[in-house]
């Protein structure tokens, strides 16, 4: 019999997600779920595969996980995983792209609607202060129907948002580093434009771009100044896309109708985050992808490559390997 294989889960995941890991693990490998920092440190040298939900994986962490052959992200973003260092060690870094698109897109649309209608303000004033704000909020609430929505990042999630908004008769602008195929534009009735122009024209700006050195703080003080005073800004992409210090200054000037952030520059969000001062800001704990349906798809697809590597040394879905270049052509 071969040597026992071990999958180490590097951060806390829900009980349902644990069940799904057990369901989709066909390799016979032992799964060591996160049980605190000391237990993780002790488990790293035994890890053949590292599974991570939100935790970053540094070069130093990989040094401790000397047996590791794969880092599998339970989601899309790998900006906090040192994929270059992994590639130099021959370690595959895999993600799951697109499996949670519907959940994140639905969440983004919900945040847009909640911001337009001040749902959070109405709830907090009623539940916490006993104020019946039937009339007083009307002056600043607005309909979404017929508005111009600017989508920044036109991948799976951005395009799904555009399609969900079709029923609201919104005009869809989008910006991406590369223009989408004509069929994708046509299917979403979306028009490409420069990011500055999008910020000027949009009633709603919804962020869905990955975090890279080029996109960090893409919504900075200058672009916030371009936005309409009554615009809505929603971020379900990555926290670093927005310069939160500049956003704080913008809100302090009384600008922007509403802001909704599911992602933050520092996660978990510090209790002292000054954006909490503004009642027209909705804050949530990076939960846009958090549905039972999405987790089933994400974990099921993640284990396609995990099982392939552990069962027969094969990468079954090469498209989900994100550090192909760093691996130097190495392919299982």
Quickly describe the structure.
Helix content is 35%, strand content 14%. It has helices spanning 15-24, 37-43, 59-64, 83-88, 101-116, 119-129, 156-164, 182-188, 195-201, 221-226, 244-252, 292-312, and strands at residues 6-9, 30-32, 49-52, 70-73, 92-94, 148-152, 171-175, 190-192, 204-207, 232-235, 258-261, 281-283.
List the helices and strands and how they pair.
Layout (H helix, E strand, L loop, with lengths): L5 E4 L5 H10 L5 E3 L4 H7 L5 E4 L6 H6 L5 E4 L9 H6 L3 E3 L6 H16 L2 H11 L18 E5 L3 H9 L6 E5 L6 H7 L1 E3 L2 H7 L2 E4 L13 H6 L5 E4 L8 H9 L5 E4 L19 E3 L8 H21 L20
Parallel strand pairs: 1-2, 1-3, 3-4, 4-5, 6-7, 6-9, 7-8, 9-10, 10-11, 11-12
Characterization of this structure:
The protein folds into two domains: 6-99 and 291-320, Rossmann fold (3-Layer(aba) Sandwich), CATH 3.40.50; 101-283, NAD(P)-binding Rossmann-like Domain (Rossmann fold, 3-Layer(aba) Sandwich), CATH 3.40.50. The chain is built from twelve helices and twelve strands. It has 332 residues and is an alpha/beta fold. The two termini are 21 Å apart.
Structural features:
332 residues; alpha/beta; Rossmann fold; seven-stranded parallel beta sheet; 12 helices
Identify the strand order in the major beta sheet: 8-7-6-9-10-11-12
| Total of domains | 2
Shape: globular
- Number of DSSP helices? 12
Q: Tell me what the CATH architecture of the largest domain is.
A: 3-Layer(aba) Sandwich
- Beta-strand proportion: 5-15%
- Round the mean pLDDT to the nearest integer and report it: 95
Distance, first to last CA: 21 Å
The third-level CATH topology of the largest domain is Rossmann fold
Low-pLDDT segments: none
- Any idea what the radius of gyration is? 22 Å
């Amino acid at each position: 019999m071969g040597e026992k294989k071990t999958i180490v889960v590097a951060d806390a995941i829900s009980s349902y997600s644990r069940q799904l890991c057990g369901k989709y693990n066909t390799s016979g490998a032992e799964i060591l779920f996160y049980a605190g920092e000391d237990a993780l440190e002790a488990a790293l040298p035994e890890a053949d595969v590292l599974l991570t939900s939100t935790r970053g994986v540094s070069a130093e962490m990989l040094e401790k996980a000397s047996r590791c052959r794969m880092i599998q992200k339970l989601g899309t973003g790998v900006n906090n995983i040192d994929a270059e260092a992994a590639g130099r060690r021959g370690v595959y870094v895999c993600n799951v792209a697109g499996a949670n698109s519907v959940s994140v897109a639905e969440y983004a649309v919900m945040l847009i609607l909640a911001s337009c209608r001040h749902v959070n303000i109405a709830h907090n004033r009623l539940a916490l202060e006993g104020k019946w704000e039937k009339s007083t909020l009307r002056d600043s609430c607005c309909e979404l129907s017929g508005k111009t929505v600017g989508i920044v990042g036109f991948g799976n999630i951005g395009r799904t948002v555009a399609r969900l908004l079709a029923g609201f008769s919104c005009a869809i602008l989008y910006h991406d580093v590369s223009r989408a195929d004509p069929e994708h534009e046509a299917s979403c009735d979306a028009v490409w434009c420069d990011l500055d122009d999008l910020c000027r024209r949009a009633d709603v700006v919804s962020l869905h771009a990955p975090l890279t050195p080029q996109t960090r703080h893409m919504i900075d003080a200058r672009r916030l100044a371009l936005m309409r005073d009554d615009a809505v800004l929603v971020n379900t992409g990555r926290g670093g896309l927005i310069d939160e210090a500049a956003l704080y200054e913008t809100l302090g000037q009384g600008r922007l109708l509403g802001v909704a952030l599911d992602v933050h520059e520092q996660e978990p969000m510090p209790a002292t985050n000054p954006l909490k001062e503004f009642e027209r800001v909705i804050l949530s704990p990076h939960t846009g992808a958090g549905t039972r349906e999405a987790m089933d798809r994400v974990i099921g697809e993640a284990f396609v490559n995990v099982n392939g590597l552990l069962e027969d040394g094969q990468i079954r879905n090469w498209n989900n390997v994100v550090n192909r270049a760093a691996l130097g052509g190495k392919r299982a």
